[in-house]
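Hi R.,

Here's the chain you asked about this morning:
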Amino acid sequence: MFGPIPKAMFSSDDDAPFECCIMCQRVLKEIGEPYMIEKSFVNHKDLNLHEVKYEYAICMACAQKMHNQLSKDSRTAIEQFFSSRVDMQLRFLEFQQDEDLATDYDVWTKTSLLTEEPREELEEYVVYAMCEGDQMIYAGYPFVLSIETLEHLQSLLSKATKDILEGFMDDHFGLPPEIRRAIRDGELIFI
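And here is the predicted structure, written out as tokens:
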């Protein structure tokens, strides 16, 4: 199913859809292939504010290149981690049963994918979405992962993989201290 990309997944720099792939700079709405958006948030509950920690869009060709750079052990660990905890096909089918909910971003991202904790209660979380052109693809995506889930997943990765992820962030974000912590603590992982 496809639906318009919700404003929650727009670039916070200009409140508009992401324009280019963070790696190859191709224009996302023109490439004719899916791309991913990753947005990390800090939830300031007392202020009712979800602050963007980092965000980017990456075309599938570049995401696949990054994924292939991860160590074989790390790729296997990521796949086993998810396959043993969630049935993405079943999740998709459950949401598709109600036509009104099938493309409702808030429903898809209401809780953390693996822990089912309400997104509004999480201190930090990351939202992952798959899009094509100006449309969000509602299939296995979008979903939310809590910082605790990402920290656990990070603990399964090899040092070589952690170094690759740190290099990606350094190349594209200049690695301010909070982003360096995001890598070290397990928040950034190419799924």
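One quick note: The helical segments are 60-69, 72-83, 88-96, 105-108, 147-154, 159-173, 177-184.

Cheers,
M.
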